[in-house]
Amino acid sequence: MILLYAFALVAGIANAFQAGTNSTFAKTLHQPFLAALLIVGVSALGLAAAGLASGRLAWPSASAFGAVPWWGWIGGLLSAVLLMSQLFVAASIGAGPFLGIIVVTGTVTSLLIDNYGLVGFKVHELNAWRIAGGALMSLGVLLVALF
């Protein structure tokens, strides 16, 4: 279990750098949409390499594809929204405010997702402690953005 948390920590660090690297890539090319396509291509190559190296890359059956719920197919579009916000927004507002907005919005959204058990998550009902945590995160982002 500790390795899973360590991987999540590494992903958080990568997320903090990603907005800047992707934004710089787009500005340098002067082609944000091409930059986004190239970034996704590099991501696909990295995922393919990791899948092959781990022996966990295989093509599923047609019935497995058919069993995916409708909302399982929108992850790529959601990733595109995040990527485009990195390319068009992050450099303009700064790393701290951008990442803060992403983290707080994600946290508040995750509270609602958990409360209602959306998109495959188990229900984890809202309570005063979880609401207080979301409020404190929001206050923290406000402080980072203002100062």
Task: Walk me through the structure.
- The chain has helices at residues 2-29, 32-54, 62-66, 75-93, 95-116, 128-146.
- The relative contact order is 0.09.
- The chain is built from six helices and no strands.
- The chain is mainly α.
- The protein has two domains: 1-57 and 69-93, no CATH class; 94-147, no CATH class.
- The protein starts with a helix and ends with a helix.
- The longest helix has 28 residues, at 2-29.
**What's the pLDDT, averaged over the residues?**
93
Give unreliable regions as ranges. none
Class per helix and strand makeup: mainly alpha
**How many structural domains are formed by the residues?**
2
Q: Report the total helices.
A: 6
Principal-axis shape: globular
Relative helix content: over 70%
Number of strands: 0
Rg estimate, integer Å: 18 Å
Order of helices and strands: HHHHHH
Tell me the β content. Answer: under 5%
Largest sheet: none
Give the termini separation.
Answer: 37 Å
Signal peptide: 1-19
Transmembrane segments: 32-58, 70-89, 95-116, 128-146
Keywords: Membrane, Signal, Transmembrane, Transmembrane helix
InterPro entries: YdcZ
Summarize this, please?
This protein is mainly α. It is 79% helix and 0% strand. The chain crosses the membrane at residues 32-58, 70-89, 95-116, 128-146.
